[in-house]
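User: Assemble these into one structure.

Assistant: Restating your components, then the assembled model:
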Amino acid sequence: MEPFQVTVTLEGAVETLRVEPQSEDREKHEYKIYQDGEFLGTVWPDCLDHGVCWFSSDEIAEDTLLKIGDAIEKYES
Amino acid sequence: MEFGRAEPSAIRLIDFSLPANGRITSRTLPGDPSPSGCQFHVGLAKWGRKEWVGDFYPPNTRERDFLTEYAKRVDSIELNAAFYSIPEPRSVRRWKEQVDGSGNKNFLFFPKVSRSISHIHRLKDCGLLVKQFLEAMSELKEYQGPSFLQLSENFSSENYERLVTFLQAWPLGHKLFLEVRHASWYSDEIERGRLFDLLAKHEVGSVMSDASARRDCVHMELPTPELFIRFIGNGGHHANSDFARVDEWIDRILIWVEKGLEQVNFFCHQHDEVASHELGIYVTEQFNKRLDAGLREISLIR
């Protein structure tokens, strides 16, 4: 899958993030997120009781993670 | 670029009027109303929204209760969670239990086929994945609605034979709707014709995504007497334009119901999805008023 961009509002500012989908063979699909060329973290979705939830192994604030996840979902829907 | 999104300045210049009926629609609809009437399902795209606590979900609703609260208010949902990974059967059983707790016996999930099938394997050699997907979804029991398969924007009509093979292998008795997005399926009359003939042959319904910048996807071709719309509103200052588009859909549905349409599945999206329930309020209200759809009307907590 090709990299793509999503737009999110972080701390009041509109930011364009680069999203690089990772290994396609894994059931948990991961994405590397870059902001202005700087690596922000790796995120992945999973199905829990409350539907799609987004996780990260890196220190991404929860509300930022939710916004990134939402933007990826919207891009892919 | 998000699918079908138009720049705000361009929205007012877009011709949103619905095209004439597609070629296959007049073949599919028999000309008289269905003796069993038309069923209506209206839903949103996601229940797990913390932002809705307080105005859509009651104050202090816990995350684990979101789905129960959703099903108290809305009759259907696109199950987009299934797109990201095939859920564990125990997760699906919990979703079912949460809907049980709502008391909404008419609730339906419309699962989106896993992208492992649609985007990664691109329909090739997917027998085992399809089996896993359908087995997991069967845990929804009475709440399991039709599945929908959305192919990648780069899945062109050159892949027609691959689609044929996939649909031939899709298990009978599992209702499926298909959405294609590559322009080649719509721009070439021959490709368009053989796509919808194929769907009719396999009794696979078509999905129309009604988005601002992809008017070709509003193809008006019904290969089965069922309508599946993913309506993407622009919201905000364009809300009245969104409502006018919904009104025109209702005009068309009224005509199609008289000619034999049997089912309408209408899902409300917005580019700002957090506000999609506000679009849902208008849709359920108007469907009930003009189509006698019998839906529970979505409303906000005042």
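The longest strand of chain B covers residues 226-233.
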